[in-house]
Structure formats: structure tokens, C-alpha cells
Specification:
Shape: elongated
Largest sheet: none
Structural class: mainly alpha
Radius of gyration: 29 Å
Number of strands: 0
Helix content: over 70%
Length: 94
Amino acid sequence: MIQEELLKLEKLATKASDRLLELSAENQQLKQKLEEVNRSLEEKEQEIEHFKNKIKISNIVENRPVSPGDSTEMSDLINNYIQEIDQLITYLSD
């Protein structure tokens, strides 16, 4: 009788172990999928930011009125680009 109970417990432990392995594999797949989705989302957000900047630049080029906040933001963005270009020139000249 005890032996039968031990066999049942062993089968249950084996089933639980197998299920744990299945769930671990599924969890890993879901984590990878989440990473892919997050990467894709970041790329899309960057694309949106680039399009926003293009629209702002188009507005400035076409002499359309730009809100003061957008103007300040564009000025900061242009200054950052200039600093990056200066750093690249310095790096390349070395």
C-alpha cells in the first residue's frame, strides 16, 4: 500500500517536473517575444520623433509661424546637432 502511494507520488512529481519544464520554455519564448515587441516599439517611437522634427523643420523653412515652445525645442535640437558635428570633426581630425 505504501509502495503504491510512493509510485503515485513519484508519477505526480514527474508530471509536475515536466510541466515546470514546459512552462519555463514557454516563459522564455514569451520573454523573447516581449523584447522584440519592445525593440519594435522603440524604433517606431524614434521614427515618430524624426517625423515630428521633419515637420517642425518644414514649418520653419516655409516661414510658417511656429509656437515658442517648438522654436526653443528646435533651437536646442539644432545646437545638439552642431555639437555632435563638432565632436565628429574633432575626432576625425585626430
